[in-house]
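Cross-check.
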Amino acid sequence: ASANGIRLVGDAATLVDPFSGEGVGNALVSGEMAARHIIEEKNHLEYQEELWQVLGPELINSFRMQKLSRKSWLLNWLVKKASKKPALQEMMTEMIASKEAQQDLHSPWFMFKTLMF
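Predicted model, tokenized:
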């Protein structure tokens, strides 16, 4: 996402959220960060490191969500469960909109508790 004298931001840096397809937020974050690094004359590698530190965990999590959503049997099972359980409906809605809620999906205890009770 960078080289000497070059800082890529947003879509150009492939920072579109793999799960939601949203990219404006990451474009703004990376744009502000790139501007700051240029003004402060920081090395391009420092930009890459900070960019990954800030956005990397979110992008990894969204990629995992994308992979899970490709499993149609799992998605169908979740939708069927959610149709009978309002708390699960709310959780699924939150996972689309909230990065914090998406992180819960990777906790085995959270999933067990949510789906079985």
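DSSP finds six helices and two strands in the chain. Residues 2-67 form one domain. Passed to J.P. for a second look.
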